[in-house]
Amino acid sequence: MTGLKPVWAEAYSVHSYEVDREGHVTAPHLCRYLQETAYYHAEHLGVGHSVLSASGRAWMLLGLAIRMDRYPRWHDTITVRTWPSARDRIYYHRDFRFFLEDEPVGIATTKWITVDIAKHRPCRTDLDFHIPYERMEKVWPDAFDHLRTPETEDIRRTVEAGYLDLDVNAHVNNIRFMEWILDGFSADFHQTRMLMELAIRFQAEAVFGDRIHIRQTEPVADRFEHSLIRERDGRETCRACSFWAKKSKYCGERKA
Question: Could you give the CA distance from residue 45 to residue 47 in angstroms, rounded to a whole number?
Answer without folding.
Answer: 6
